[in-house]
Amino acid sequence: MVEEKYDVTKEQNQNETGEVKKSEFAILYEQSVAATIKEGQIVKGKIIGVTSKDVIVDIGYKSEGAIAISEFSDPESIKIGDEVDVYLESKEDDSGMVVLSKQKAERAVGWEMVVARYGEGDIVDGKVTKKVKGGFMVNVGVEAFLPASLTAMKGFVNLNQLIGQTFQFKIVKINKPRKNIVVSRKDALQQQKDEDKKKILDNLVKGAMASGIVRNITDFGAFVDLGGGMTGLLHITDMSWGRVSHPSEVVAIGDTIEVMILDFDKDNGRVSLGLKQKGQNPWETVDTKYPAGAKVKGTVVNIVPYGAFVELEKGVEGLLHISELSWTKKYANPNELLAMGDRVEVQVLELDKSNRKISLGLKQLEANPWIGVEEKYPVGKTVKGKVRNLTDYGAFVELEDGIDGLVHVSDISWTKRIGHPKDVFKKGEKLEAVVLAVDSANRRISLGVKQTTPDPWDEIASKYIQDSVMNGKVTKVANFGLFIEIDKELEGLAHISEIPIAEGEKLEDKYKIDQEVKARVLKVDSIQHKIALSLK
Hints:
Number of strands: 32
Strand content: 35-45%
């Protein structure tokens, strides 16, 4: 090896003992080389020997250097005579050889190349070489540190799978004094995702079809992955023309579906999708299918306190209002007659295509018992019926199935003051009444019980003349006076101004119910059916 090394001098001598002696030219050459190279430099060397552990490199200095074979990435490819860049650590070690490093040369060259070509924020290719405390080391031309928190986007599970793989990384920090670089795979992936998303947004067209995978389902819709990091919202109202209670009725996570692009917002990266828009809107033909007056069949799909929604076909529903269930029966809630899933025949009462509303009726399929009721129950006719219901203001009397009349509390008695109809009538009781008024349009009949007997007030007026005095009984004490019964079911009112009472004294303290008093008639009003009394 030594002989090969010094062939460049073209001169060599041999002493008497046979030792090879360097020529003066060779010595001068070495001295010139020694003067030009310095420790810490990267120099070119030639491989002049290879052992099982080391590679011997000549850099033109007076002695060779040995580099550990482990510093070579591919030891099998090492050939004698190949040139290699090496880092001169020291001109001489304990054995008299120069100290060289191939890896340090590569790091120095790589560092200069990387910082010259790239800056913070740039994307570089790199290979994950090993795991270290807090992250990984990545070869990007020089070793860079990849923090564990910046290895991947959400969802990456086994970080050890990164070792040995090549990815793109974003340079997040370059520290030139310390010669270290921090990179992020997470930021590179996010940047690529944003670029892909922008590319997709730039190519979106309203009304175009797109294929995607359902990634998530919520109460209000489903999120569909359109690829390239772009996700669109398929709202529940755009899933079907028909009624959808929950998105899971239409799609499932993992489904691949074809959707229509309804709208998109490039600034916020939002895309609205539609599934029902792939088919024809059924409301476009409702005016020909469901004209007013038509009898149709449908399914009860929803029941609310004010009615039931009936599905006539997928996407077309009509409202069957509670008032349109029956001519004769009063329902408190539609579920008294209908149940979810019932098939019913109904009549279309009104169609509003522009607002997508259809009014339906069930009672219209039967004869209206109120038609001709004026002829059947003319004013003045005496009728018989059964008390069906009692309220504060009167009694409802059933004249026939579906036909009720109201006896108002004021039409129960000519003379008696009625506090509540239940004081006079009982449910189920049969009675006679006179028809006072009929309104078939609003399905109302007014009845009177007192009208079955003559009006007694003309006789009362002649019997109880002004200033006549009589005995009576207190029936009610009010803050404005006393009601006094002066005959059977005949009361008069003594106003407080006509009652002798001391200053500060209260009526309820002086007068009690059923207390007998003497009263004088002030006035009898036969029209208003009132008698004014005085206790003075």
